[in-house]
Design goal:
This protein is an all-beta fold and 127 residues long. The protein has no helices and eleven strands.
Length: 127
């Protein structure tokens, strides 16, 4: 089970930190990620991290503004979001990939690669 939190309403240029706590069989995962879904749009990749090695990946629109991290001892994933823009407004989901082998070099961008999903936390950025 994944439990996401930390969303809210913020002015453009502001910051938020999202958290995603993993419990149960989700504790041992190959990687975790954040996706987001704006109204009327498909769910899109934001950022991912390999759980053991810590390698990070970001979509271009958030590079330099968002930072993904994890606390292995707490089994918790984070997304620090700075310089927020109105176009960042969306429901943010955390996702976890279990022990199955990834498919392709850009597997982490694919919704289909993830086995576990949190319930989503809403981020609203006003201009």
């Amino acid at each position: 089970q994944l439990q996401a939190s930390g969303g809210g309403l913020v002015l453009a240029g502001g910051s938020l930190r999202l958290s995603c706590a993993a419990s149960g069989r989700t504790r041992s995962m190959y990687g975790m990620a954040w996706f987001r879904q704006a109204p009327g749009k498909e769910r899109e990749f934001v950022s991912a991290i390999i759980w053991s090695g810590g390698k990070q990946s970001y979509t271009d629109s958030v590079k330099g503004r968002f930072t993904i991290s994890r606390d292995i001892a707490k089994n918790t994933l984070y997304l620090q979001m700075n310089g927020l823009r109105p176009e960042d407004t969306a429901l943010y989901y955390c996702a976890g990939k279990g022990a199955s082998l990834p498919h392709g070099s850009n597997w982490y961008r694919s919704v289909a690669e993830y086995d576990y999903w949190g319930q989503g936390t809403l981020v609203t950025v006003s201009s």
